[in-house]
Design brief:
Elements: H1 2-25, E1 43-48, H2 53-65, E2 70-75, H3 83-95, E3 101-106, H4 120-127, E4 133-137, H5 145-149, E5 152-154, H6 157-198
Parallel strand pairs: 1-2, 1-3, 3-4, 4-5
């Protein structure tokens, strides 16, 4: 049993390395990373197992922020036979609804549990999108192929959501600071105008 498991994990690792080399040769590892992330990223396409802990962790982080996020959810299997195709279809479906970013998340697991995220069909789907993809996949050690082709990879669903929250907060703070600067500048201009007018003498002819 131990030898068979070792062979299986070794086979998965070999396939992962082969796919990464092929994607690199085709220039696809950086394709999604080259896409700009809209500012602020408030419209989120979420692909995960709806109702899972990963789903709760991600959405709870957005809700707790108090920011006006819109989440477009697409339920998908994240493990087992057919999961890779299911995930690829879900990513494509949610991307068609034109979110600012697509978030692909799931909780932790063994290398075998996370095999769907090393699948070629999912990797090529992500690389071919014109919407940036962020991942939050709980790994034991290695990054998945999905992480490698995504725009940005985070360690967990919570970290993925927190990063999006931080981007929006940074934008809000920048807008608020600009509004204060404009108001201060306007006050300075008005005060200067009042000062100049106060130093003028007005003459009237009888």
């Amino acid at each position: 049993m131990y030898k068979r498991q070792t062979f299986t994990l070794g086979h998965l690792a070999a396939e992962r390395d082969r796919l990464l080399r092929a994607l690199a040769d085709e220039g696809l590892l950086r394709a999604n990373r080259a896409l700009p992330v809209p500012v602020p990223p408030l419209r989120i396409g979420l692909v995960t197992s709806v109702g899972s802990a990963a789903h709760a962790d991600f959405t709870d982080e957005l809700v707790a922020s108090g920011l006006p996020f819109t989440v477009l959810e697409c339920d998908a299997r994240v493990q087992g036979d057919g999961a890779a195709v299911d995930l690829a279809e879900a990513v494509h479906t949610v991307a068609d609804r034109r979110p600012d970013v697509v978030a692909l998340v799931r909780g932790g697991g063994s290398a075998a549990d996370l095999a769907a995220f090393d699948a070629e069909v999912l990797a090529r789907t992500i690389a071919g999108l014109d919407v940036p993809v962020v991942t939050g996949i709980g790994h034991e050690v290695d990054r998945s192929v999905a992480d490698e082709v995504a725009h940005t990879a985070f360690k967990t669903p919570t970290a993925c959501a927190a990063a999006l929250v931080e981007q929006v907060r940074t934008y809000v703070e920048a807008v608020d600071a600009l509004a204060v600067a404009v108001a201060d500048r306007a006050t300075t201009v008005v005060d200067r105008a009042d000062s100049l007018l106060g130093g003028c003498l007005l003459y009237t002819s009888d």
